[in-house]
Design goal:
Layout lengths: L1 H22 L2 H4 L1 H6 L3 H27 L3 H27 L10 H11 L3 H26 L5 H28 L1
Amino acid sequence: MRSNITKSIFIVIALSAACAVQSCTEEKGNSYTAKTKVNAEGLHFIRTAHEAGLTEIKASEIAKQKSTNSQVTGLADMVIADHKALGADVDSLAKHKFVTVIAEVSHDDRAVLDSLAKKTGPEFDKAYIEMMVADHEEAVELFKENTKSNYTAVRDVAEKGLPKLEDHLKQAKAVQAGLK
């Protein structure tokens, strides 16, 4: 009797393992990408653009509260307005392509924002502007790469957003030069 139970348990485990291996085929692994109606590069663009936009908005909201420098707060106003509009385009693209995006900034970005919020005065202004320059350099590169996307909707969002991001970078560098 005990032998039959052991055999039965072994068979159940073997069948479960076989099912698990079967479900890990390359075709099934790529099924999420197929369901999203976008390839891995498009998926990366949507998620990265979404996350970066949220982070830029949050950092700029902090800048509006903490900075007394009119150039810094002016840049923050522009970033908030433009990134909210761009974020709506990215979110619409995500919905259209069935891509799930997270509504909050990542843990790592939250730590950066918390560190930024602890700064005051010129130290804050310098840190915020350095963040804007670095983040917008990355965003410009991401959007430039995706202006060549095989997906028209991805390409359209990238082409529409790129000039604004380039302007933000230009403005951030101008403010940065004035802070030195």
